[in-house]
Specification:
heterodimer, A: about 280 residues, alpha/beta, 11 helices, B: about 240 residues, Rossmann fold, 6-stranded mixed β-sheet, 9 helices, binds adenosine-5'-triphosphate, binds magnesium ion
């Protein structure tokens, strides 16, 4: 079943040279699956996620022909309704997790607050759930970490705290923007398992934005490749190496290897790609 | 160029570094890899004078560091922090951020240098007067790298400098860093969890776990998937590289 439908999404910012479109007519549908988005830095991945969540702030503007979540059109929903949805049914792990946490509230209290908003648990049960959630994302000393403020945790711990917070809410749609970029492979595996569990067991839909080509290729059901505000290619699970678009081929060529002996890495021929597609905001 | 001996760091009653020692020669590029929360950023921050209280000995660019005392090493050492968003001033434009170190040190030709640096890190020149929140995650990370390179310091402390970049931009930045190092004999201490990045850019690496150095190895050992410590092996296995 389709959970999210996006048709002709555009995000625009004003500039001295007139409006600049950073997302240029994106259309896709998401079911109860793991959809990966990869793409060039600045190609509009984060803005796509934020637009779905209704989080494009002025002077930016998002428009679409249709943007439906569980059959409800999000475009004209009052902010009050949007906020309700955002807290519960759909949630987003932002790219800079430590800066989306409240800097003056202890980590444990922030997760407990999220729980309080969504469930009727006693204070004690909430506390137990908070520690459980932290342990699940492989924080070994949850008691200590629950008492820390966001600036006192490491980069990767901040990402895991954000994921723990989203997971306790059990949303129907999760947009995760680079949720594992600071994690080593062993912790990353565990975090992916948790998200996988929500997709399989609870039928959640996951939009995973990531630069990690190998991870996305191995783990997602489908992959969208973005370049300059547009989807340039869609690939099936494990079919990354069959990519045709010159941008995607260029990406694959740039990947360093474990036994790297090249003096320089191949880079994209951007001028040639520009001839291939114009516009956007890189 | 960098010598750390028996470094201990505690926060309250939690010890996060237990007697860490490492040495990086001039012109060498050294990587720190290891579990999330194992203390990698803490080592870099301690060297950059961002940790108030520590025990042990640290020597950097010819100066002995003292806990609680600020060394004036800006022209010798620059750091790229793990959270570019947090390390960039929210109300300073890219231009302010890049020109400021030049102004402080009375360096001329600022305009030309700022533009050349934007080109070098692959940021279009029209981004010059934008604020951090008007940039994407990877664009912000490139501003932080550009700022660190403005003074051409001989030592760079790089904390996950390419974690927010797609692999094509990552390749451009790594080529840039490698080129600068060869040309100018720079010394790098680099944190990453990406083993192929270590293989491309570094000579040696240390594997950290729970605040201790588990293993130090030559990059040739890494390339041959020959790490010995339990955690080093786990990293190789899980990367699907063994
Ligand atoms: N407030 C703003 N004003 C003008 N342009 C903006 C603003 N915010 C973002 N942009 C631009 O929009 C484009 C798309 O940004 P977005 O954050 O979606 O990129 P991204 O694909 O997530 O990149 P990355 O991988 O680097 O995070 C970028 O070129 C960025 O500079
Ligand atoms: N100001 C602080 N107060 C209390 N604990 C702190 C503080 N700063 C760091 N820590 C703790 O020190 C430990 C090491 O953190 P550090 O940031 O060095 O890890 P890291 O190896 O860089 O991890 P990551 O790969 O996730 O970034 C963590 O357990 C963290 O919670
Ligand atoms: Mg982004
Ligand atoms: Mg760190």
């Amino acid at each position: 079943m389709t959970l999210l439908e996006v048709d002709n999404l555009r995000v625009t910012f004003p500039s001295d040279q007139g409006p600049v479109e950073v997302v240029r007519g994106l259309s896709f549908a998401l079911g109860r699956e793991r959809l990966g988005i990869v793409g060039e830095s600045g190609s509009g991945k984060s803005m796509t996620g934020r637009a779905i969540m209704g989080l494009i702030g002025a002077p930016g503007q998002a428009t679409a022909d249709r943007m439906a979540f569980e059959g409800r059109d999000l475009r004209h929903l009052p902010e009050r309704e949007m906020r309700k949805l955002r807290g519960a049914r759909m949630s987003m792990v932002l790219q800079d997790p430590k800066f989306s946490l409240n800097p003056v509230i202890r980590i444990g209290d922030q997760i407990a607050e999220a729980l309080e908003f969504h469930t009727r648990l006693s204070a004690r049960a909430r506390r137990a759930r908070v520690l459980e959630a932290l342990e699940a994302v492989r924080i070994d000393d949850p008691e200590r970490v629950a008492r820390l403020y966001p600036h006192e945790v490491s980069g990767g711990m901040g990402q895991r705290v954000m994921i723990a917070m989203m997971v306790v809410m059990e949303p129907a749609l999760m947009i995760a923007d680079e949720p594992t970029s600071a994690l080593d492979v062993s912790v990353r595996g565990q975090v992916l398992d948790i998200m996988d569990d929500l997709v399989r067991r609870r039928g959640m839909g996951l939009l995973l934005i990531s630069h990690d080509l190998n991870m996305v290729a191995r783990w997602c059901d489908r992959i969208l490749v973005m370049y300059r505000g547009q989807i340039v290619e869609e690939l099936g699970a494990g079919a990354l190496h069959e990519a045709q678009h010159p941008y995607t081929r260029g990406l694959l060529a740039s990947l360093p290897r474990l036994n790297e002996d090249r003096a320089t890495l191949p880079v994209l021929d951007r001028a040639a790609l520009d001839g291939f597609m114009a516009g956007g905001d890189r | 160029m960098i010598a750390v001996q028996n470094l201990n760091v505690r926060y309250g009653d939690t010890t996060v570094l237990h007697g860490v020692s490492l040495a990086v020669a001039q012109g060498e590029s050294f990587a720190l890899v290891g579990e999330s929360g194992s203390g990698k950023s803490t080592i870099l921050k301690a060297l950059a004078g961002q940790v108030a209280d520590w025990q042990g000995q640290m020597r950097l660019a010819g100066q002995d560091l003292q806990p609680g005392r600020k060394a004036h090493l800006a022209r010798q050492v620059q750091m790229v922090f793990q959270d570019p968003y947090g390390s960039l001033h929210p109300r300073r434009s890219v231009d302010d951020t890049l020109a400021e170190p030049l102004a402080i040190h009375g360096i001329k030709g600022r305009d030309a240098r700022v533009l050349a640096m934007l080109d070098a890190v692959g940021l279009p020149r029209r981004f010059r007067f934008r604020l951090p929140h008007q940039l994407s995650g990877g664009q912000r990370q490139r501003v932080a790298i550009a700022r660190a390179l403005m003074l051409e310091p001989p030592v760079l402390l790089l904390d996950e400098p390419t974690s927010a970049l797609d692999v094509s931009v990552q390749a451009e930045i790594m080529n840039l860093l490698k080129g600068l190092r060869e040309e100018k004999g720079l010394t790098f201490l680099l944190v990453t969890h990406d083993l192929p990045v270590v293989s491309f850019l570094c000579d040696r690496l240390a594997v950290l776990r729970a605040g201790r150095v588990e293993e130090t190895a030559e990059v040739a050992t890494l390339r041959a998937a020959g790490l010995q410590s339990a955690y080093g092996r786990e990293l190789l296995e899980r990367s699907g590289l063994v």
